[in-house]
Amino acid sequence: MDEPLVLATWGLVVATLLLFGAGLVPAVGQFREWRQRKNALASALLPELHGTRTQAIEIRDTLIGMKANAQLSDVAHVYYDVERLCERIEGIQGHAGLSIDQRLELYVLNSHLNLLGLQLSLIASEDSEIRQMALETASVEERLRKSLIAAQASLLCLDRVDHLFVEVKKKYGGRTFTEEMMARVESDSDSAEKKLVDVRRVMRTDDQLM
User: Fold this and answer.
1) pTM over the 0.85 mark
2) 38 Cβ contact partners less than 8 Å away, ≥ 6 residues apart
3) Which residue of 43, 58, 64, 92 is most buried, as measured by CB atoms within 10 A?
4) How many CB atoms lie within 10 A of CB 126?
5) What pLDDT, in 10s, does the model give residues 134-155?
């Protein structure tokens, strides 16, 4: 092959590589920015979702212990807790950057909570006529049963939301934010218990030397 042709060929290769590199730099920057946005979204939402789960568990557990003869004020108190939880979920739904699956699950979650709130509002309505009409179609026991089902359904939905934050599961070895948090709390408690053995031993030694 003639030397001019070889040089021209290599020149074309180099030019192609330079063009590829020039196109790659913005793409890498965009990918990094996309990752940062996803991490920022997870950082903002996952603590909120964990707080939502804690509240939902408290509501569920309260409903498990609630009897048909419960005071209307007690039922109303749970209703107001559900109402605040719905407001919290609506705030989470307003975040930009949610995937379509994440947004769908949040709407499903809000539906469960709204159904829960509806059942409780019918039981504890201050309007005696509305309450009477509501209890003619379903007893207090039945409405409490439906309320409990809705509360548990909201927790199942929260499980699905947690598992949609894939980047968090990668970061924490396959665990969700809540699972990682609980694991760390348990690990800290175990370590603290062992550490206290050493602390007490040192304190006893110091007392003996005094």
Assistant:
1) no
2) 97, 167
3) 92
4) 9
5) 888 889 899 999 999 999 999 9
